[in-house]
Amino acid sequence: MRLFGITAPPAAEGREGLALVAIVKNVSDYILEWLEFHTVAGARRVFLYDNGCTDDTLAKIAASPFAASVTVTPWRMAGYDPATERRISQQVGAYAHAVTTFGADFERMAFIDVDEFLVPDPGLSLMEAITQHGDHSNISLPWHMFGHAGHETRPDGWVTRAFTDRAPVPYARDSDLLRFKCIVDPTRVSAVGVHSFETVDMGDRTANAAGQVVSNRARKQESFFTSSPLQLNHYYLLSKAELETKLARGPINFGGAEGYRKRVLAKVAEIERAPVEDRKAVAYYDALSAQRGGAGNNLG
Fold this sequence. Notes:
Elements: E1 4-5, E2 18-24, H1 31-41, E3 45-50, H2 57-62, E4 70-74, E5 80-81, E6 86-87, H3 90-102, E7 108-111, E8 116-120, H4 126-131, E9 138-145, H5 159-162, E10 165-166, E11 180-184, E12 189-192, E13 198-199, E14 205-207, E15 213-215, E16 230-234, H6 240-249, H7 257-273, E17 276-277, H8 280-291
Parallel strand pairs: 2-3, 2-7, 3-4, 9-16
Antiparallel strand pairs: 1-12, 5-6, 7-11, 8-16, 9-11, 10-17, 12-13, 14-15
């Protein structure tokens, strides 16, 4: 099911800020960096959907300085339409639940994964970057796809510091790397998807971070691709050993293991073909942390 229709919640009095929504499973090694980076960047709240964690992900969150701003919801949904037998993505279900249950209190919600980081331009908070070019209820951010950076196994320290090589952008229209994640006004959402949303005022149109508006279908044109004032870093490969673990785990939603492996390896080949250095995330965190007197916990 590509999109799931919903009725948006009415805006609560005094709603403000940005909430992040992610579905998680066994991300203990990465979750604290992800929480710290986005907290320093200005995220107000985080809603995590636990898709069956068996490691210490939840214990680490509970013992962290971020515990008070994180809501964890158990999520093992296995829904389908009995008329068509089409299954409903666990991510789509979680996203729809987040919008309708928690969305009233926030100006924006961003729907990303724990290997994805929202990186504003220097000096901007997340909300400042999101609203710099207008009050768009639906923003689509293209993946900036990061590779192995030569690491055979997981390096010590932060992902954003260890992996600074990515595929050159923009991607060709037919590229396996050209996908989007969305930031929306939850009180204006009419339909939810993993990579696209619809809203009551924009319909099936969406804006990029620079304010250009097109239809969801037209997002793949080169002129829509943007890295400013907000960039979405996707640390897709990590180390070679971590990639093999990812391949063995298989897809989070539907499809067979072999098809999933072929799709992932096609992305690997394109990312690793001629990578370029990108240290925007490192520079952003370091500058903002220093400006705030070392506000971050410097986990990396």
